[in-house]
Amino acid sequence: MRKLLIVLAVTAALAPSAFATPLPEEDLGEMAMGRERLAAVSVPEMRQRFPALVARAEASFDCWTLNPEARAPEGSFAQCRGEFMVSIQELEQLMRRAARQDLAALQ
User: Is 50 exceeded by the pLDDT of residue 19?
Assistant: First the structure.
């Protein structure tokens, strides 16, 4: 249910709005890709092993995609995006490392 709510919230945030400044197409594509990356690492095992890091990735993703005020020139759009990219890369590395360890344990 939580994943569905996240997907709905992000979809609504990425949809055109009369109140929001339209984003360039490349930003929308990057946000959609970010959503896919976040979904891939937001599995129960990662949430259990690295709850703070998953929460940080989710919060920075929300800041980046759901906060129209952050898109203003003085806003934190780039900072939120940067924090998300750092968090998601850490989670992806941890996930790959865990997969290698699991594979090694099977041999």
Answer: no
